[in-house]
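New to this. Please check this fold:
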Amino acid sequence: MSLRTLTIICILFSSFLGSSNGYILDKHSYNSYDDRELHLQDIILHPASLVEKVSKNPFEDVVRENENSLTSGDKTISSRSSRIQSEMPFVDNELGVEVFSGNILKSHWSNLQSKIGKMPPYIELWQILLSILRVEFYLPSRDTSLVQNEKCISDLDVIYSPTTKDQWPVAIQMVDSWGKLPDGLFFGNNQAPGAFDECLIIQWSNVSATNVSTESFKGKYCSIMLKDGETSVNATKLQMPAMITSLGYPALYSFYGTCMPSSCTQEDLHISLNYNLAKWNKSVSLVDCQTEDPPDIDFTAGQIVMICLLSLFAFLLLSGAAVDTWIECTGRAEMRRGPMKYLLVFSISTNLYKMFHINTAENKEAITSLYGMRVLSMTWVVWCHQYMMAFILDGNKFSIGTLFHGNWLDQILMNGYPSVDSFFFMSGLLVAYGILKEKELSGSVNLFIFYFHRFIRLTIPICLLSGFLATLSAYLGHGPYAFGIKAPHSLQDLCQKYWWRDALFITNYFVTGDDAGSCLGVCWYTAVDFQIFLITPLILFPFIWREWFKTPQRILNRIECIWLGIVILVSVLIPGIITGIEKFPPTAIFGLPDQETSIEYNEQVYMASWCRAQPYLVGMALGVIFRRDAQKKIKLEMWQVLLGWCMATATGLAVLFGMYDYNQLGQYPGYHWADSIFYGSLHRLAWGLALAWVIFSCHYGYAGPVNTFLSHPSWQPLSRLTYCMFLVAIPVQGILFLFNDYYPLHFGHLDKVLQTVGALFVSGIGAVLLSLCTEAPVVGLEKLLLKRGKTKT
């Protein structure tokens, strides 16, 4: 931007945002010139008409110094601008290319600095610009009663009143890096992060005649967050002066970034901002500052322990692989039966082979269609989470309603909650199938091993990941939003305080209240799943201990069916009764306007184990059928197969798209109590039944291409990683798309798809590492240390 353009902009702003004291955005001192208002359409459609209005500005006397007096009209403006241009030889095409191509990096800064260094000291014009930007909301105060940091106050003079040629580039670049009024403010962009990297590369030294640096500072970027809920933005006034004053500046946006000398501290800025914001009835909720130089590493005790633990895992993994390779090369297979067997369970080579091995051998007892269903359900979960993950950073929030309005396919995302029910279904199926198989093979069920195996397999990955996030996650963020990792009640803070909730599977009991929260938000699912798992032997009691009942086989079969039917009926009645009494919506509505109701629904229904058991119980019932008929195929007529597929397809679509009328952003119609009770009590059962038919048909050969797709061997490696991937995905999405972003994102379907693909890829890598350290060794050690019972002969 040339100085001519900068001068015109300053005069334009001063002409219709005038203020007697220089703080031109103070709504109490605003007076429109000549009782005339400047409209947005004047600027856009009739720029020439601004000349007359520009000629009358409150800064006319300031700008007149050392220049011919300003009169009015195009000729005067043109003459003055030409003179300024003639004095500014550095404002040329080369500089324009450097600025607008975005190449102001360290390698280019020396050249650019030499050009800006030739700038005449237009102090008055500079003071006008700083007053327009409200400098007191970007820099610490120079009032010694507020800031006692003398070095900071001295360095601030370089920004407030640059006089020498080496001060001008620093001052201009520092101000240029500030987060100013963002584009798309009325389109939902309430973030003004500024230019993070531009601030950090600032360096200034005051070199004396003896070539000794007497003063110096670097740029320090600070993220500033204002307290929410204190600004009412009225976007209906299109007259520029009235519009800006009505917005209640500086709280136009909830977050913005600034740049100040590195000699100033975070506390200096925090105190100054709160003092200057007080007259606006505002305050600062967070100030977080960063410099280019990494802080002195001072590891805490927790970080040292985690580093040592990770180093131990690395040693075990590499040592196991080395011993494994030695055995293969020397042929000394007897070493696998000696003490080295406890180290070999950590072998990277063996565990990676098992993890990515594709088994193509036919196994009639294997439920191969679960491979594809598990991976697809995991992808669905990550995709839905990605749409919610970076919402706070989206720069087009107000356009989201148009993206999710009137499109049936959008319900796959807005009503994506059945994706979690799919995991409940698969969990119940595998648990019932496994426990009945153990009973059949060994003649008994060891309940201690049954519970211990599940607990240790699930909790160790949670503990390791939570410990890593509680200690070392602060080093994974960089940029304006990195404070989200270590700020109070953020990722690191929650993991330090509440990791035990996830590890003990009680996360779903801490949804509301002052102490609500957990480290891994998705662990509400593992908590619910484990709580249902605890009562699985009770539900399967007639199936496991049949010998206790002295009744004929035919009567016992009926008792088992009746008992399981009663349990499923109770699981249907409980959420229906709670929904009716509390007047809850039928499900978790995406755009529910009443946030209090949404939170209560999550606590009492969505995350309550007694309301989520329906698909789990359906899976258990299917597991019983598969185990009872493991050696034979259930034969169906063609009309039965067609009827089953029609009913399952219709049921699944009804569950998925049944909330179309409710999931319309901006047009929430309310819900009828009958709809809420009917859908709220039955939709999870219906989804489980639809999945049960799909798996049943695939297992017994009635699914055709569906079975070919879901049972394809290529799903097997990813299927083995779904649990660790489920844990890792949310932290990865936060680190990638929140804590390392530099500018607001664009919310669009294609953008979200690309982000989801990236999140899945990185989460897959994290899942492999987590599984190598936890899941694979646990399974190996369990086989060595625990006996699952002897097989009957």
The chain has two domains: 1-132, 358-785. The chain is about 55% helix and 5% strand.
